[in-house]
Design a protein that fits this description.
The structure is a single chain. This protein has four helices and 17 strands. The protein is α+β, with helices and mostly antiparallel strands. A seven-stranded antiparallel sheet has the order 11-17-16-15-14-13-12. A hairpin with a 5-residue loop joins strand 7 and strand 8. The radius of gyration is 23 Å and the shape is elongated. It binds FE2/S2 (inorganic) cluster (FES) and fe (ii) ion. The site of FE2/S2 (inorganic) cluster has 9 residues, from loops. Fe (ii) ion binds next to helix 3.
């Protein structure tokens, strides 16, 4: 089950051009393309005649022509041509999905079109700040339910065991986690005092010696995360304290789009409060982050298989408080959406 009345990332903007690109989102087959003016479009990927995927057809200007008998649809999903017929049957239409482009990503609204408000797209805090650098984004498919990924992104403790060569430091094993629940999501966080910086961060710090580090793991409903790393010289950090002038800040944006119940497309990019134009740093970040996320992927895909095939009960720990609260709220939001308009989307 998925939340529908929300924006998901459909693709990186550069992946979609003047060709028909099939994607699956929340189990729905969709074809993405751009109009001649470069505007993104998203249509149901099934011709109403014999359900051939429209992505197997061809683009004719801004319209899509089915590759079997030539039914043609404009980017609103309206059928504009039925070859050999005198009139277009009014049922000959496909669903079109609201799409918007922001942060280099194509966003798609999977619920009732009338509720698609672009102000609801996830806000990226420092996007327009010229003093911040951006690491070009990336993506991968992970063979697990998206909620195993939100579990992972509400779990700062896992870095101690999963990311030993990058984000881990000794302090990651024992420092207690705090959980904050808000209207739009859950944050699990902690300050880890006076320890040697983790290998990933060390080369980029403006200071030497030990550090205080905050892990801020925030996931907003249903599946968008901002993970903040805040690193300051030892004994200068702590909740509510002003940040030291040499602070290292890295905001990691993570957008999970369910393909189906057991596959998730994972999109991400990072922003940092230093070296905005430094391509070498961006490349190093991109490589290291991808490497770390490959480590998560290996674990999460094995967790999906393990949980699917369990023969004894699994247990929950204190560290699972944030992820469990998150899952409960997502389930309640989905239940409320289904109760409110069980047929609204299907009837469109
Ligand atoms: S299947 Fe598309 S026109 Fe026949
Ligand atoms: Fe991880």
């Amino acid at each position: 089950m998925f939340l529908k009345n929300t924006w998901y990332v459909a693709a990186w903007g550069h992946e979609i051009g003047r060709s028909l690109t099939p994607v699956t989102i929340l189990g729905e087959k969709i074809v993405l393309y751009r109009t001649e003016a470069g505007e993104p479009a998203a249509l149901e990927d099934a011709c109403p005649h014999r359900k051939l995927p429209l992505s197997m057809g061809r683009l004719k200007g801004d319209d899509v022509e089915c590759g079997y008998h030539g039914l043609t649809f404009d980017c609103t999903g309206t059928c504009t041509r039925v070859p050999g017929a005198e009139r277009v049957p009014h049922v000959a239409r496909v669903r079109s999905y609201p799409v918007a482009e922001r942060y280099g990503l194509l966003w798609i609204w999977m619920g009732e079109a009338a509720r698609a408000d672009t102000d609801l797209i996830f806000q990226v805090e420092h996007w327009d700040d010229p003093s911040w650098g951006t690491t070009r984004g990336d993506s991968m498919d992970v063979a697990c339910n998206y909620l195993y990924m939100t579990d992972n992104l509400l779990d700062p403790s896992h870095v101690a065991w999963v990311h030993q060569t990058s984000f881990a430091s000794a302090a990651c094993e024992e420092t207690r986690l705090e959980t904050t629940v808000a209207d739009d999501g859950v944050t699990v966080w902690r300050w880890m005092p006076d320890h040697e910086p983790a290998p990933f961060y060390k080369p980029f710090l403006k200071f030497s010696g030990n550090c205080d580090r905050k892990q801020h793991y925030e996931v907003r409903y249903p599946s968008h995360a901002i993970i903040k790393a805040i690193i300051v010289p030892a004994n200068t950090g702590g909740e509510g304290k002003p940040l030291h002038e040499d602070v290292f800040l890295m905001d990691s944006y993570n957008f999970m789009t369910p393909i189906d119940e057991k596959t998730t497309r994972y999109f991400w990019f990072q922003m940092r409060n230093f070296a905005p134009g430094d391509e070498a740093i961006s490349k190093a970040f991109r490589r290291s982050v991808r490497g770390a996320f490959e480590e998560d992927k290996a674990v999460l895909e094995a967790v999906q298989i393990g949980m699917d095939n369990k023969v004894t009960r699994n247990l929950d720990l204190k560290i699972d408080k944030g992820p469990i609260r998150f899952r409960q709220r997502v389930a309640a939001l989905i239940a409320a959406e289904n109760a409110e308009a069980p047929t609204a989307v299907a009837a469109e």
